[in-house]
Design goal:
Blueprint: H1 12-26, H2 33-49, H3 56-80, H4 95-98, H5 103-121, H6 126-145, H7 152-160, H8 163-172, H9 177-200, H10 202-208, H11 213-217, H12 221-242, H13 247-267, H14 272-280, H15 282-300
Helix pairs in contact: 2-3, 2-8, 2-15, 3-5, 3-6, 6-7, 6-8, 7-9, 8-9, 9-12, 9-14, 12-13, 13-14, 13-15
Amino acid sequence: MAAPPPRQPKSIATELIRQAGQYALLMRLDKPIGIWLLLWPTLWGLWIAAKGQPDPKIFLVFVLGVITMRSAGCVINDFADRKIDPKVARTGARPLAAGTVSPADALILFFALGLIAIALVLTLDPLTQRLAIVGAILTIIYPFTKRFFSAPQLVLGAAFGWGIPMAFAAQTGNIPRLAWLMWLTVVVWAVIYDTMYAMVDRADDLKAGMKSTAILFGSADVFIVTLLQVILVLALALMGAAAQLGGWYMAFLVIAAGLLVFQHILIRKRRPEQCFQAFTNHHYFGATIFAGIALDYLFKSGG
């Protein structure tokens, strides 16, 4: 019997494409929900700061910055959790957990993304640059807070809402009280959706010794999330009043409140797949609030 032909070595191009695919998975580019959850509040801030007419250059810088920083956040999160993710069914196939990307390569990718973010923020004013440093610190420390802080979702919310004061600074040169009200509103929003997300992994997180608001709230989780949803709607109404938004915004806020009711129905029985569905539904919640803001300014300007 003839011997089988020797295997042909993979071409350099094929290997580069394969590795690039693993880096894309590490940055979670195949799961853009995190990009949307970071982008929507940033756009809320830009549109309100600019009264519906944001500077095109600032808009582009912020959109690219959101994609870059969310990708960097995923990389450093998976680096921090590289020994925990293999023990969790949902995260066991992540590149670092599966060994398809080395920890050293992950750090190189993180620093490369950081350099891109620095290049973007250097096109903005000094106040926004200083705020960006705070945002970067929040991004780096968040994954590690899950080991010792019972409510790491607060840190996540602070990070995901930080684009709002940055947007006001870049667009207007100052940070009014409205910007901080919006930031606090996003912190509440993030605690809501990330608690739903944490409810999916609660059993695994308990085994791994990780912290989350889903664990902190315990059997009161659905009640507390519902209470936070009420607070969120009131905060968004206050935000609209402070920004002098009118009927279009309030109409879309009512629609967004309906989405919160739908999410409440999903999480009532605490089934992981339905909790995850409730989490992903927040993309539509953020989009609905943005639509209300954008349409309100559009029709005010006679567009």
